[in-house]
Amino acid sequence: MARISSLTISTLIALGAAAFVSAPALAADPIVFTSWGGTTQSSQQKDWAQPFSQSSGINVLMDGPTDYGKLKAMVDSGNVNWDVVDVEGDFAFAAQKAGLVEPIDYNVVKKDELDPRFSNTHAVGSFYYSFVLGFNKSAFKGAQPQNWADLFDTKKFPGKRTLYKWSAPGVLEIALLADGVQPDKLYPLDLDRAFKKLDTIKSDVVWWSGGAQSQQLLASGEAPIGMFWNGRLHALEQTGVSVGISWNQNLTAADMLVVPKGAKHKAEAMKFLAAATSPQAQAKFAQDTGYAPINLKSAAMMPPAVAKTMPDQYKASQINLDMKYWADNRDAIAKRWYAWQSK
Fold first, then answer.
1. Is the pTM of this model over 0.90?
2. N or C: which end of the chain has fewer CB within 10 A?
3. Distance between alpha carbon 323 and the CA centroid of its chain, in Å?
4. pLDDT tens, residue by residue, 277-327
5. Distance between CA atoms of residues 211 and 278, nearest Å
């Protein structure tokens, strides 16, 4: 993933340039797919949009980055220019509650093939990922970090730490897990305890706001340990960097695909969702990005060596981030999160 997101769902993000995906013939008006840009959207274009255009004759215009404020403004004005949008899990729940998205047509999309954790009445999974503990092996010659508690142990594992700047979802859970909270006792989050734990490493934190930045911090050794999207560590490892990964208590979340309320090409959008979440499309995207497929049939279509790098292979201690909780509480927590960062 490559994104810079905000904790408040009303934040406006600058609109990126659109790119055109060609198709052999124009069978219908083009649809617009909006996502976060970077390597993730490039793979969505290659693995989802292009094959869909070739098979359906429906062109797909790529737009981005995703902007929640703009999506809401479109729906409120009745002038919706996006047809399918890749959003974060908590926003998908909030958008459903606010009446901003259409229900999914499961007569078109094959719900029985999808991971039930990442599909609901108004959204289907785009892909899912894990926050994992990553470290530069060359920085730790002796004992290797094993868990989130090690991330907070600056004596045993000295050096700067890197955390995701925009995402209190994940960071607060990590702090609580490091402080001994059991996974089934995480929610509702004990914010006082989480921030108190974060205080212990605050002076050692280097924040990353995008996936490429997180890779650079780790590879250079500027921050030799931290929390990362698993796909970014997988990609970094392929470049020859000595990357260590601990999947212990990996925290999972999914991006979701939604159709804005009043989308001009609703029927075509549902067909695109069906294609994007199909076994083959999900398998190809997973191989390109390192992020796990949400179609339950995709794993069998991937090389075993690739399948072993996916979060769904590390379920023993896996923890699902509660995006319904975050949908209800994210804006309120954001105020405290940003105030704490600025102190």
1. no
2. C
3. 12
4. 999 999 999 999 889 999 999 999 999 988 888 898 899 999 999 999 999
5. 26
